[in-house]
Amino acid sequence: MEADFFHIRDVLTADERATLERVRDFLDREVRPGANERWAAEESPLHLRDRIRELNITGTYADDPSVAPRSYLLTGMIGMEMARVDPSFATFFGVHGGLGMGSIRECGSDEQKERWLPSMVRWERIGAFGLTEPLVGSGTAGGLTTTARREGDTWVLNGEKKWIGNATFADLVVIWARDEADNQVKGFVVEQGTPGFTPERLRQKISLRGVHNAHIVLDDVRVPEENRLQRANSFRDTARVLKTTRGGVAWSATGCAMGAYEAARAYAVEREQFGRPIGGFQLVQDLLSRMLGNITACQAMVMRMAELHDQDKLNDAQAALAKMFCTTRMRETVAWAREVFGGNGILLEYDVARFFADAEALYSYEGTRDMNSLIVGRACTGFSAFV
């Protein structure tokens, strides 16, 4: 039994369901085989970029008229299905299409959007997003240490970034830096190969090993004014991007939990102990039902979130609550799923170990549980408790 217990796919239109089925078929044929091997070898799914292009699901109609109009609900379900098969693939896709392209879409001028987004839709250029720093994660709104100094028509960037997905091979990396003149956060598109821009791949991760994260050093990196995102003038503009992508993480977390549940359910009906399948024992059935409860609650929340987004009514606190809730329930769910497997749960061949490990990264990035909780708390009370 799949983890769509309340048949949420039925709310899509016939055309949307056809698109989703096309994506599911691609994931089953191209992504699922070898997912564990890529994870173990720390290999990126970059080799699938041409096949992804053929799906025509990257970006929006506003980015390029070749992209079919798509609701936030369908976009969310696509992300959920990706994470249900391989959270590393979902993150690889989301960094490019959500964070990289989203920064340009939300904060770029019309000329910049026309210059970069069509080629990114076609995966001719891959994007990345550089906000987090070695010593600054949750405190990026007020403590960003990477600096930008204007010299004529050029900006000079100095600092470091860490955990930047896709950055070792991305063609365009959006770097967020604090302007020395007005102390405001601004966005800059740095092209791969720019002198002084050095991305070094982080290795030996225990989560999302199929994503190439980088530690970036920026040493007097010179960026032309034409590459400064013209509508990014403070961290409030950065937050516009994060509102959408936090919602995307909620969808991915739901998909990760679904993948873990489905692996556990399949194992429970086949694995025998005491002369019968373990799925026939009360304690195992209790774990499976708890997992489904968590998953269904998350599905209901992200579906409503997508409806609000489609109506242009989604606010930062709602996106933060979805990210906080769904990643917390995901973490609980993958632990229960791993429990069903007993000792086999730590072997990659059974899939659940990959979901169990990958959940840790989803739980942490795009704002920790605590930081998203404080965004929600501020909305509840009117008081900021961040410091």
UniProtKB/TrEMBL annotation:
Coiled coil feature spans: none
InterPro entries given in the database record: ACX4-like, Acyl-CoA_DH_CS, Acyl-CoA_Oxase/DH_mid-dom, Acyl-CoA_Oxase/DH_mid-dom_sf, AcylCo_DH-like_C, AcylCo_DH/oxidase_C, AcylCoA_DH/ox_N, AcylCoA_DH/ox_N_sf
Entry-linked PROSITE patterns: ACYL_COA_DH_2
GO biological process: fatty acid beta-oxidation
GO MF annotation list: acyl-CoA dehydrogenase activity; flavin adenine dinucleotide binding
Domain (Acyl-CoA dehydrogenase/oxidase C-terminal) ranges: 240-379
Acyl-CoA oxidase/dehydrogenase middle domain boundaries: 128-221
The Acyl-CoA dehydrogenase/oxidase N-terminal domain, residue ranges: 13-122
Cofactor(s) for this UniProt protein: FAD
Source organism, top-level taxon: Bacteria
Keyword Membrane in record: no
Span of the signal peptide: none
Keyword annotations: FAD, Flavoprotein, Oxidoreductase, Plasmid
Entry's family note: Belongs to the acyl-CoA dehydrogenase family.
UniProt-recorded name of the protein: Acyl-CoA dehydrogenase domain protein
Native source organism of the sequence: Streptantibioticus cattleyicolor (strain ATCC 35852 / DSM 46488 / JCM 4925 / NBRC 14057 / NRRL 8057)
